[in-house]
Fold:
Amino acid sequence: MKTLGKLPVTIVTGFLGAGKTTLLRHMLDNAQGRRIAVIVNEFGELGIDGDLLKQCAIGCSEEEAAGRVFELANGCLCCTVQEEFFPVMRELVARRDDLDQILIETSGLALPKPLVQAFQWPEIRNACTVDAVITVVDSPAVAAGTFAAHPDQVDAQRRQDPNLDHESPLHELFEDQLASADLVILNKSDLLDADALARVRAEVVRELPPAVKIVEAHQGHLPLDVLLGLNAEAERHIDGRATHHDHEPHEEHDHDEFDSFDLDLPEVDDRRLLDALATLVGRHAILRVKGFAAIPGKPMRLLIQGVGKRFDKHFDRAWRTDEPRTTRLVVIGQALDRAAIAAELRAAL
Structure:
């Protein structure tokens, strides 16, 4: 339901691999007639998450679905609000009578607070309201103390650097995502026993404003009534949410500690590829790998998503006649040696 005549916007944030895209797919598949526009902020150039979302059954043709998904591919969304984000929102505001809801998936490295503050701009504020900021938490990662992925190498670098304080950048970013939340989802809760899940909940509660609710989920499967219609009007109170990355209005900020690059490869054996990627994760500060692989003799494209040393794969669709059968990956991490990673991967294959 629209609040005070304004178009409600739900912002979904969380670390890489926490399950943001899976949550959005669930919401779109269960839209129950809602007319939803999706803005996907992809960290990397392949637009993989956007491609996944376009496959969802949301009651329209493929062409119509493609027009509903806005991919912002030139960096974290909080850094592009004055570039791509504003024109996209202006276009959606012009179509507000045709929409019931906007969903925004931030990159796993984005800070949600500056994005929410963008909804204070008069042209957006008069037409839209942030119904809620939903932070998706990778419960097993929090239980393991890594918060996301498998950042052993990152932690080792932090300990060796005398210029860094006792908090790792990942932990601070995790706290900032919670500080901006109106609803927190403890995702992958089925992978933990009751005691471990209770410890995760306690860890999260320490970082939350008192009124923020916490729900548990498996693969983002939650009723839409829990996710939509929270009427938080987050843009009105976001300035009071203190975060580690608060800065003066004209002070520049970036995420130079994070890096990403693309790899194009020929057809590959899937087992050999996954083994090689797992080895690379152990040797480099790689947080996540995702993309599509062309497998010799297979008519379908293999989707690959890896968080730390944990990799998932499945065939998502048949190769189209007009697209090359190539393997395309995005590698995301910190202080990555692109040439070395590419050379090692090609040598292993």
